[in-house]
Design brief:
Elements: H1 3-20, H2 25-34, H3 43-59, E1 61-64, H4 72-82, E2 101-105, E3 109-116, E4 122-129, E5 131-133, E6 139-142, H5 143-148, H6 162-173, H7 187-209, H8 224-237, H9 239-245, H10 247-257, H11 261-265
Parallel strand pairs: 1-2, 2-6
Antiparallel strand pairs: 3-4, 5-6
The protein binds zinc ion.
Amino acid sequence: MLARARAAWRRWHEDRACRRHAIPESLWQLTLARYPFLRWRSAEQLDRLRRLATLFLARKEFSGAHGLVVTDEMAVAVAAQAVLPILSLDGGLNLYDGFIGIVLHDDLVVAPREVMDDDGVVHEFDEELAGEAMQDGPVMLSWRDVQAASGESGPTDWAYNVTIHEFAHVIDMSNGVADGVPPLADRNARQHWQEVMQTAYDGFRERAEAQHSTSIDPYAAESMAEFFAVSVETFYVQPLELQRESPQVYRLFADYFQEDPAARSAE
Ligand SMILES: [Zn+2]
């Protein structure tokens, strides 16, 4: 097909999906009221967010674990936040093509883990997860944590948004590796990204290890992939905090995601 014909065909398909899965106005307004950081954008961007959230609902399959019933309200809350980081990215929803399923649990999920220490002794422990994104796998989220992630009043002092966090991992993994480097245009862009992030990460780990207070969740010191995911959730939910913690990372993200939430949040 010719490129123009293909674009028109895609547009027609998307329009049809948007009509079939349209988010009712009252539910959309309720979602924007519950998650105020979604509103820090122009009317045009908000229209695009709604359209992307609608297409997301059309393409993905939600299920509830252990009998949890997934309501429209829950699905829209997840969809609106999940598409926020891809709002202005070239890849758009295609960055989420690696999976279809979203599994909601009513609360934290206990996952049995095993680690081997340096002496070869295996330690078993339970890890409590608010969310998990796996390569090519479904995205798991705790509904209680999705609800708690309205920005200002999270369960911690730091920005807390499990949905944006897990979808940041999905974007990171969409080029095959979870290394804190999302798909970028070319080698130069990758090199610049790695330099900025590595410098910021090294400085952050030093501060976290010295137990200095940090503006973003110290869990970010776990790995480069977690530093990326935590920084992305902070960028969208408490942008001024990310700017304070690491102005270079804020600028890198503002360029990449084509957003300036710190300017809008201060209005
Ligand atoms: Zn994570």
